[in-house]
Every structure is written in C-alpha cells, then in structure tokens.
Amino acid sequence: MFGELTQQILNGLVMGSYYILIAVGLSIVFGVLSIPHFAHGSVVMVGGYVTFIFVNKLGVPFILAMLISMILCAAFGILLERSAYRPVRNAPPINAFIVALGLVMIIDNLMTSIFGANQVIIKSPFKSTYTIGSAHVTSLRLFMIGACVVLVAALIIFMKYTKLGKAVRATSQNREASLIVGINTNVVTAIVFGLGSAFGAVAGSLIGALFAVYPTMGTFITQKGFAVLILGGLGSIPGAIVGGLIIGLTENLGSMFISSEYKDVFAFLIMIIILIFKPSGLFGGKGK
Amino acid sequence: MLSVKNLSIAYNGVKVVHGIDFKAEKGKVTVLIGANGAGKTSIIRSIMNLIKSESDEILYDGEDIKKTKPNNMSRIGISLCPEGRQLFPDMTVLENLEMGAYARKDKAGIATDLVDILDKFPRLKDRKTQCAGTLSGGEQELLAIARALMGKPKLLILDEPSWGVAPIMVEEVMKMTRHINEEMGVTVLLVEQNANVALRYSDYAYVLDVGEIAIQGTGEALLGDRKVQEIYLGI
Ligand SMILES: Nc1ncnc2c1ncn2[C@@H]1O[C@H](COP(=O)(O)OP(=O)(O)OP(=O)(O)O)[C@@H](O)[C@H]1O
Ligand SMILES: [Mg+2]
After folding, report:
1. DSSP 8-class letter at B12
2. Domains in chain B, ordered, with CATH?
3. Please, are residues B173 and B141 in contact by the beta-carbon 8 Å criterion?
4. How do residues A102-113 score in pLDDT, each as one tens digit?
C-alpha cells in the first residue's frame, strides 16, 4: 500500500511535469494575446513526430533530436501565429477561436495522411531504472521531471530579470502601453509562440518516448492543458505549475484509490471543484 | 515642435474630428481643452498612430511622422502619458519606470534619470517595490508621468492627467507639468477637460468643440474670455 502510494506520487509528478510543460506555453500565449491557442496540442504532437523521425529514422541521438524539434517547433509556432492568428487579431475573439479549431483539423489531418493514424514510439536512450523505497522509476521519467524543472526555472528567470522577459510581461499586462514605451509587440508575440512551442516540443518528445505519439493526440493534450490553465488561473505561470501538479497527482492517486478507468474524469472534476470555490482559478483574478 | 494640419478622424464612417490644425510650440505648454467626447483622446491616439486618421501632415521636429510606428515614437522623443494611465499593474513602481526607458540604450543615463526622477517624485520613491495596480489614483498618475519622463522625451503628451485624481493632487500634477517644462526643457502638449486649472498652467490653448477648434489663444487670454468662461468654466 505504502509502496504503491509512493509509486503513484512519482507517476503523478512525472505526468504533472508533462502537463506543466504544455500549460506554461498556453499560459504565456494567452497572457500576451488573450487567444485560446487550441492548436498548441497539435504543435506538441508535431514536436513528438519530429523527434521520432530524427531518432528512429535518422539515428540522431535523442537529446540532439529533441533540441532540433524544439527549434523547428518554435519556428512552426511563430509561423502559425503570423499566418493564422495575426490576420484576425483585431476581429472579434470568436474569429481567433474558429481559426484555432481550423488549425487543429488541418494539422491533425495532414499528419495522419503523412504518418498514418497508428501510434509510434520514440526510441529512448534512458533505460535504467532506479528504486526509491519500494517504488521504481525509469531514468526517462526522471528526465521528464528534470527537464520541466530546468526549463520552467529558466523561463521564470527570463521573465523576471531580462529586458525581453519584462517586455513580455508588460505586453501581457497592457499591450497599448507597451507600444507607447517602445516595445515591438510583434516581436514579443513571436517570442511567446516560439518559447511556448519549444516547451511543447519537449513535452511531445518525452511523452513519445514514454508512451507514444499519434496524429490525433493534440486535441486531448489541449483539453488537459486548458484544464490546468483554468484551474491555475489564466495567464499565470505559477498557476500553470501548481495546476499541472494538481492534475498529474489527482489522476494518478485517483487511479489508485478509485479506478484508472476514470483517470481523465478526475482532472476535470478537480478543476470544477476548484472553480466553484475560486472562479478565477488558483492564481487568477487580479484582472487586467 | 509639433504641427498638425487638417486632421480628420472617423470611427466606422462617423467623423468625430473635422480637419483641425494646431501646434505645440517648442519649449511651451500647449493645452487642448474640450468636453467629454470632444475628440481629444482620438487626436492624441492618431498622432501616436495608434488609430487611423487622415491629415495633410503631422510634423514633429520638421519630420513627417504620419507613418512612424507607435513603438518608434519614444525613440524619436515623443512620450505619451495616456488617458487612464495605462500602467503595468502587476509590475512594481520601479519596473514601470524601467519600462518607460525601454527604447533607450544609454544604461548610465537611464540609471541617473531613475535617481533624479525618484527624487522628484518622493511619493513614488517610498513605494518603489509596490505593484503599480495597488497605488492610489493620484500616485498612479504620478507614476504614469514619471514613466513617460523615463523615455527622456523632447515632447511630452499628457492625456487628462487630472482624471480620477483628487483636487489637491490636480494642482500637484499641474505644478509638476510646469516644472517638467521649465526645469527639464520638455515641450508639453496637455489634454484637459478641467479648463480652469489647465489654462492657468499653459502658455497656449485650443478649445475643442465636437471635433473642431472653436477658440484659441494664450492661456491668460482664454481665462478672461467670456465665451470660454460660459462654456467651460461654468461662470
Ligand atoms: N474606438 C472607438 N470606436 C467608436 N467611436 C469611438 C471610439 N473611440 C472614441 N469614439 C468616439 O469618438 C468621440 C471622441 O472620443 P474621444 O475619446 O476622442 O473624446 P475625448 O475628448 O477624449 O473625451 P473624454 O474627455 O471623455 O476623454 C466620442 O464620440 C467617442 O464616442
Ligand atoms: Mg479622452
């Protein structure tokens, strides 16, 4: 029982890290543009496939492949914003919403026609297993947690202390004032899409090695990502971190104590319960 | 310093500003006075290129700035302290001031200016690490002005600095404006509804009436003008 609990907490932390990597990207994009970037899950999926091609087909080492995937996805994210979201920036919000849904369909169908609907698994170099008490954890899982900690810490430092990071925060707090003080908000927008998508590529690569990637996984990822975001408070990075951990842990502990069949229900249930008590999410509500 | 010729502004086909001309002379405080909805903010926003407008020319320091992007205005020396302050609410007072200097590259100059400005605004100095969103209305206005000054402007545009500010603070804000003009040599274009105060602190004034310049003259002359008194001072 106790061993099982440690095991599930560890698994929860791993999944939590995965959700955090996805949600921080959604969060910074939402902060700056206030758009629901539903295609983010599809970017994560594409990131997984890029790593899959480089590792499984071209024999590139995993870490290097993941770095390539981060760069390509960053470019892909920036391209999506420029080509799809920017034209509707001054239109009513519903337009961005519909554009996002359209993007998901286009990307997912394109990937299905190229790679087929079946899932693929990325070959992982992290094979060793460690034992912590009576729980077992593979080095790949530890790497997921480590990657999340390092990347999110780097993001927080970037946002807090660098000039560009401050420009990102300023733009998300007041776009027009940012223009007035001389910030090129188009550059800021590209930065958040680039960073968010690169984080997504890490999530996609690691989940592809841990489980699998398949063309329609994006929708599911986006749903989870938004659950985390709403629970934590829209546009808040601490919210995305705490929200990701809560959902990762609830899913795994819920599976243990109740049933793994309802795993995905727990995430949304906890989200609804928290929203009842704090409608703007855990870290939300200061308003703009 | 700034010269606007035949500026018209329309929203969705409805004209709100009808071909106005005005100037902000170098080294002076010029004020645009007008009631709610007269079109003051629209004029400022179109000078900054934040909205579309039509004009024959908008000259700043002899250069046409009709095509200058809003985020390049601070680089050529125009700082705006916008209507409603538009601070970065979740950033500290210090961070807001830093953002005001975003377009500048002279690190040493920014550091000295920050010290000077904090000395000029002791209320802000006491609240350096407080989030801007939690300041009082008057303090927020001071911060918005200070942030604009951090851009080291040649032309400072203030859009209704007395908005939402207690009467005693209004005088303080106006004195500060005059000080910025006289001591720092910054040309000021002030937009105000509060004609009584604005006229006392300005060199030249334009009175805007539903998108047209109705009266213009020196601040003193307009203070004594019967028509201005009737309409704007309610005497
Ligand atoms: N974005 C907009 N869309 C449509 N109409 C607008 C818009 N902004 C301003 N207007 C209209 O233009 C007119 C002038 O507005 P403006 O904000 O320039 O006035 P103002 O003189 O600054 O008023 P106030 O003293 O209340 O700030 C008003 O009738 C206003 O309703
Ligand atoms: Mg106005």
Report:
1. T
2. 2-85+152-231 (3.40.50.300)
3. yes
4. 999 999 999 999
pLDDT tens digits for range A215-236: 999 999 999 999 999 999 988 9
Residue ranges in B78-165 assigned as alpha helix (H): 93-100, 107-120, 122-125, 137-150
**Ligand 1: lining residues by beta carbon, under 6 Å:** B 11, 16, 34, 36-42, 83, 160, 193
Q: Is the pLDDT of residue A286 over 50?
A: no
- CA–CA gap between residue B50 and residue B71 (Å, rounded): 9
Residue A185, domain member (yes or no): yes
In a domain, A237, yes or no: no
The arithmetic mean of pLDDT across residues A90-97, rounded, is 90
Range of lowest pLDDT (A104-108, A261-265, B93-97): A261-265
How far apart CA A235 and CA A204 sit, in angstroms, is: 21
Nearest atom in ligand 1 to B42's CA: 18
Residue by residue, DSSP assigns B124-138 as HHTTTTSBGGGS-HH
Neighbours of B82 (CB within 10 A): 22
Tell me how far the alpha carbon of residue A205 lies from the centroid of ligand 1, in angstroms.
51
Q: Using CB atoms, which residue from A167, A176, A288 is nearest to B102?
A: A167
pLDDT at A237: 93
- Number of structural domains, chain A? 1
- Amino acid of residue A194: G
Contact B98, B149 (CB under 8 A): no
More confident residue, B209 or B107: B107
Taking residue A238's Cβ as centre, other Cβ atoms within 10 Å add up to: 14
Mutational test site, ligand 1, from B20, B41, B207, max ligand atoms within 8 Å of CB = B41
Which range of residues forms the domain containing residue A191? 15-215
A280 within a domain of the structure (yes/no): no
pLDDT in tens, B139-173: 999 999 999 999 999 999 999 998 888 888 889 88
- Ligand 1 centroid to Cα of residue B38, in Å, is 7
Q: Does this complex have an ipTM over 0.85?
A: yes
pLDDT band (50, 70, 90) for residue A288: very low
Q: Smallest Cα–Cα separation from B170: which of B188, B199, B194?
A: B194
Closest-CA residue to B79 (of B192, B140, B161, B157): B157
Torsion of CA A152, A156, A157, A158, to 10 degrees: 100
Contact across the interface for B91 and A183, Cβ inside 8 Å:
no
Confidence of residue B234 (pLDDT cuts 50, 70, 90): low
- Distance in angstroms (rounded) separating the CA atoms of residues B219 and A268: 64
Residue A221 lies in a domain: no
